[in-house]
Structure formats: structure tokens, C-alpha cells
Amino acid sequence: MITSSVSAVIPVSNDQAALSIAIPATIDILEKNTQWFELIIAEDASTDGSYELARRWAVHDSRVKIIHRDKRSGRGSALTRAWRESAGDIFCYFDVDLATDIQELPKLLQAIEDGYDGATGSRLLAESHVVRDQNREMKSRAYNNLVRMILGSTIHDHQCGFKVFRREIMASLLPFVHDTHWFWDTELLVLCQKSGYALAELPVRWTQGQGTTVRTSDIFSMSKGIMNLWFRLHLTGLVRQVKSSPDVHRYQKFQPRSFQRE
To answer: Which of 206, 218, 228, 254 registers the highest number of CB atoms within 10 A of its CB?
Structure first.
């Protein structure tokens, strides 16, 4: 049982069908594994009834909270706003299609309880069980190899939408995360590592859905993000800025206990 309070966030944009499954599934897993939680639906200018669905849940369950925007702002921006309005000591988020098996969530939350600053699901570890087409597999591996090679990350999978962070870590890093869409995850993970925080990468069960919202244009945008972040890291003293942030000095780091992958 997770003793820390948990804020779980599902970013949504025109995902009514998936959301109708994700909300009860998330509530069920959090009820069984946490003592206190809130579920935040970060709804980003949907026109398919996603907002209305989330609102009905929020009316009948005080643990469900909805954040609505009339104008599309991007996935990363929606997650940043959700963090600002969250209350839990642990902040986690995952994709609405539950491509990553929601049953994997407790082990990521437990990593934080064990002392890690962040934990991220990975589709690219040998122990992971992944079902997806070859085209997406090749694109994912190419992108992640670029991040590892150019930005010096040790993480294998930066884009798996299944991540958990200690609240204080988000406070220290988010002011320096500039992207508002898909590169947001990569930027957060790289800054987390470069700042010396303890990050666990854990294998997950992941199944490709019928569609994807990551387009080829998004891949090019994320590639541009890699180069922009390299520039900031090497030419603007970004890590020094993060480490000198007042939020960092207010945070007393935990030393993670031995953690075994499951």
C-alpha cells in the first residue's frame, strides 16, 4: 500500500471512448494501492464529449477533478497545468488509451516510496512485453537512440507515457521545461538525470492501440527539440541554473533503497 498521497493525471483531447474506460480502471487501481489519491483529467479543448464525460464523473466522485481548456495548448502544457493544480506528494501521469497496462502503476509508485525521485515505464528494456507494428518500433528506437547519443541520456525509452515523480522534483524542474507538447517528457527526463536525481526505468507491458496521435510532423518537432535542448545544456548553463534554483535548495534528497525490477 502506497502511504504517500498521489495525484494521477490523464491528458485528454478528443478521447471520449478511451476515457470512459480509463477513468474507472484508474480509480480501481488507485483505490486498491493508495491511501489517498486524486484523479485529474487534463482535458485539452475536446469537441467529442470528453469534457462532459469527465464532468459527470467529477460531480459524482469528489476524487475526480477536471481541468478544461477552450483552446488547444498541447499535451505538455496540459500536464504542467495539472501539476500546478495537483495536491499529491507523488505526481504521476499516463496516456488515456492505457497502452501501458494500468496494473504496472503500483510498482512505479513503489519506486518513489523506496526513495527514487522519479520512475518511468519503458518499452525498450529486454524484460518489457510490447505489442506494436514494426514502423512504430523503428521510429521509437531511432528517436531514443538520438536522445541517448546527443543528450547523453541513460534512459532507453523517453516517450512511454507512463511516469511518476516526487512532487518536489517537479517543482525544481518544470520552470526549465520549455516544450508544450510531445518533447515535454524527454526534456523532463533529461533534466532530471542531469540534475543528479535518482531515476528508475522499469519494464512494462504495452500494447499498441488502434491509432496514434504522434504524427510524422511530431517526430520532426521532437528532433528539433533535441537540438534545442543540447544548445541549452551546453551553451547556456542550464544544469547550473536548475541546481541553483531555490526549489532545489528547499528539497532534501532521499537516498533510494535497493530496487529490483519486476
So the answer is: 206
Q: Which residues are catalytic?
A: 185
Distance between CA atoms of residues 9 and 91, nearest Å: 8
Name the strand (E) or helix (H) holding 173: helix 167-173
DSSP letter assigned to residue 34: B
State which H helix or E strand residue 252 sits in: none
Q: What is the full DSSP assignment across 183-244?
A: THHHHHHHHHHHTT--EEEEE-EEE--S--S--HHHHHHHHHHHHHHHHHHHHS-HHHHHHT
In sequence order, what are the residues at sequence separation of 6 or more whose Cβ sits closer than 8 angstroms to the Cβ of residue 228? 178
User: Model pTM?
Assistant: 0.89
Displacement of CA 176 from its chain's centroid (Å): 16
